[in-house]
Amino acid sequence: MRSDDTIFAIASGYGRAAVSIVRLSGARSRFILETMAGSVPDSRRASVRLLRDPASGEPLDQALVLWMPGPHSFTGEDQAELHIHGGLATRAAVLRVLGSLNGCRAAEAGEFTRRAFLNGRMDLSRVEGLADLIDAETEGQRRQALLQLEGRLGNAAEGWREDILQVLALIEASLDFSDEGDVPEGLEADILRRLKVLGEELGRVLANRSGERLREGLTVVLAGAPNAGKSTLLNMLAKRDVAIVSPIAGTTRDVIEVHCDLNGLPVVIVDTAGLRESGDVIEQEGVARARARAEAADVVLWLLPPEGGAGEPPSARRLLRVGTKADLNLVRHDCDLVVSAATGEGLPELIGLLEKEAEAALGQGEALLTRERHRRALERAHASVIRAMEMLEFDEPAELIAEEVRLASRAVGAITGRVDVEDMLDRLFSSFCIGK
Ligand SMILES: Nc1nc2c(c(=O)[nH]1)N(C=O)[C@@H](CNc1ccc(C(=O)N[C@@H](CCC(=O)O)C(=O)O)cc1)CN2
Ligand SMILES: Nc1nc2c(ncn2[C@@H]2O[C@H](COP(=O)(O)OP(=O)(O)OP(=O)(O)O)[C@@H](O)[C@H]2O)c(=O)[nH]1
Ligand SMILES: [Mg+2]
User: Fold this and answer.
1) What is the pTM of this model?
2) 226 ligand 2 Cβ < 6 A
3) How far apart, in Å, are the Cα atoms of 67 and each of 81, 116, 306?
4) Proportion of the chain above pLDDT 70, given as a percent
5) Interatomic CA distance for residues 170 and 406, integer angstroms
6) Which of 5, 181, 206, 215 could serve as a FRET partner for 142 with CA atoms 20 to 30 Å apart?
7) Helix 398-416 to helix 372-393 angle, to the nearest 10 degrees?
8) What is the interface pTM, i.e. ipTM, of the complex?
9) Is the dihedral of CA 21, 26, 28, 34 positive or negative?
């Protein structure tokens, strides 16, 4: 894979469509556009051209083309776009011709965005925002991803880094003044004050976990005895026939996940095997997985059938007791609400309860961190800031304090990709679609 090749890819989808967009990026984009379209339109001005195969002169399609010279382009390189008709044969013909041209090859997944990153057009946090925007399935996810693409997290991280570097400069300045290598009194108070403000801010940001939850979805696990009606309820909530339902106890063995959109908040509903002792090794494994999922869930719906036999609920962060089969009109004890899949009774109330749970866990707004990677980096930075404050108070040598503050700035720098990121670049970019 050469980074000075000119790359091309379909940037729109692969089905039959009205229009398909082919993107080009790299030094030969202008030449390719000129030879296929006959001439290059004014920069960034959409223009209609008849595209031809330069080798045979054969017409390929009537297209709308764009010329976007670097460095003011998405990738920072010279770019062109061919907006062609979205038929399979048209796309195949244009891609075949592009692939036959010298110094021009099909792009790898994420390669356009990788080039934008390498050319300093986007920092890593924005690249992640872009990846999330393409994957966004709910309104909440879309909003959060767009804020990150626009640089909310990246700008915050840059700001913290500047604050940390300022503290570092003060500590280094103090080295020139003192003989013993300690930080002088007046400076120490200033440095301590700055570190305190920073430590409090990082602590506040770390306390909000709604960003990661919103990105991944709130997990709601359906658990209970066999035949409690878990799979039936999953099918009702998903509004389609996802899981097999039967009167035979022990029907569900695998974990089944469905992604739902509750008022823009993403919820992953998980159906599990009924919890009971079983001699069947496959069912045993299903029950073990069910318990593990329930313990890790944000919310467990503990389903209680009227016939009883529920056993002990799993240990869960949050557990709602839901009586099932309300249509059987049997006496119930100890339920937060009752539902019937047969009549629909209680379902709106259940969905309302789940919306409240999702709102409480995800709707805090203002979350900056959307990935475990950000949290780990910020936790390291926070720990170093706190340690530096302690070191100052114990009059440790300024060189050592400076080193700790440097660690904090490196940790914050990892968020935008200034440092320590080589290992995760490949993973991130390969998760993109071809053409992005
Ligand atoms: N046809 C098409 N639609 C698209 C894109 C694209 O590349 N092509 N995008 C691709 O992701 C998104 C829009 N994002 C973009 C971001 C930056 C630039 C760009 O050329 N930026 C230059 C010039 C800005 C200007 O002044 O217009 C720059 O930042 O210097 C283009 C698209 C979504 N829609
Ligand atoms: N009358 C009535 N029957 C229901 C209701 N919900 C489920 N059932 C019946 O109860 C039986 C068990 O339902 P499932 O949804 O398969 O139960 P499950 O909890 O997934 O069971 P396992 O997968 O075996 O753990 C089926 O015969 C369903 O038709 C309900 O609201 N009312
Ligand atoms: Mg089931």
Assistant:
1) 0.83
2) yes
3) 7, 17, 68
4) 95
5) 12
6) 206
7) 170
8) 0.80
9) positive
